[in-house]
Amino acid sequence: MIVQPLRVAVTREEPPDGPLATALHRHGLTPVPCPAIAEAPPPDPEPLRRAALALDEYQWLVVASARAVRALLEARRGRGLPEGLRTAAVGTRTAAALVAAGALDPLTARVAGSEPLVASLRDAEAWPGRRVLLPRALEGGSELGSALRAWRARVDEVVAYRTLERPPDEIATAWRRAAPDAAVVGSPSAARALVRGVGVDELRRVEPLVAIGSPTAMELVGRGVKARVPPRADFEAIAEMLALGSRAGEEVAAP
Predict the structure, then answer these.
(1) Which residues, other chains included, contact 87 with Cβ-Cβ below 8 Å and sequence gap of 6+?
(2) Helix, strand, or coil here: 179?
(3) How far apart are CA 184 and CA 205, in angstroms?
(4) Reported pTM
(5) Which of 26, 85, 142, 165 could serve as a FRET partner for 156 with CA atoms 20 to 30 Å apart?
(6) Residue 88: φ, ψ to 5°
(7) How large is the average pLDDT for residues 249-254?
(8) pLDDT of residue 5
């Protein structure tokens, strides 16, 4: 009997050779596209442009996604990061994007996510008066900015990009075409879009449904869908977890 590779729905917007699809391929899994959200420029690009061109005036750059790094570099018109700029990232993939842009040894937490990074940042600097740039998604959380302001840092938060939910009928069509055995959901907005497009009953059929990070998992749980969270919020850990089988990872379910 020939066992077919697990078909894993990739719900983020990426090309066939994107980082998640590549990691899945490496572990003998079959990525199938089912994008639930699309990325778009910020409604007003001017604040990002001004901050990007004045990056030399900041002591710290703190980022929550690789997409924010790319948007910042685009706004810098091809220039890399200034020498001496200290950086911090919520996870290894975001840290890798910073390193590729010229950062040296970005600060990360042992566990991916905004709250662990806040704990790591607390004693990393004498924060009062330090200038911090925090480019983020329009829908991004406020934990990092709130913590830095509480430590009396001078924080500039700018919208680097936004995510748009795809129409439910487009998601439903892509899901039927993908016919997935498992799925990876990368953000709360993607979770909401999937529920609207596919429905709770269909998502409950998928095992495992992998949520990248606890906010995404809790968004699914709040809508009646259990999810599994990988030990690290990077694509290699997700692929390893899926390759191990449906019982791997930490399960998050409604009480």
Answers:
(1) 60, 61, 62, 63, 81, 98, 103, 106, 107
(2) coil
(3) 14
(4) 0.75
(5) 165
(6) -145, 145
(7) 52
(8) 82
CA distances from 3 to 29, 33, 186 (A): 12, 21, 28
Residue 8 bridge partners (DSSP) = 31, 182
The span from the CA of 128 to the CA of 153, in Å, is 5
pLDDT digits (tens, 9 = 90+) for 164-223: 999 999 999 999 999 999 999 988 889 999 999 999 999 999 988 999 878 889 999 999
Residue 181 corresponds to which tokens in the numbers above?
């055995």
Residues in the chain: 255
Q: What is the DSSP letter of 109?
A: -
**How do 37-40 and 154-165 pair as beta strands?**
antiparallel
| Structural contact between residues 112 and 91, judged by C-beta atoms closer than 8 angstroms | yes
Unique residue bearing structure tokens 């829908």: 139
Per the structure block, which two tokens stand in for 228?
């599994």
Residue 60 confidence (pLDDT): 98
Nearest 5°: the CA angle 217, 222, 224 is: 95
CB 139: neighbour CB atoms within 10 A? Answer: 14
Q: Helix 188-198 vs helix 214-221: angle between axes, to the nearest 10 degrees? A: 30
Grouping H, G, I as helix, E, B as strand and the rest as coil, residue 196 is helix
Handedness of CA 75, 20, 9, 248 (dihedral sign): negative
89: three-class secondary structure by DSSP:
strand
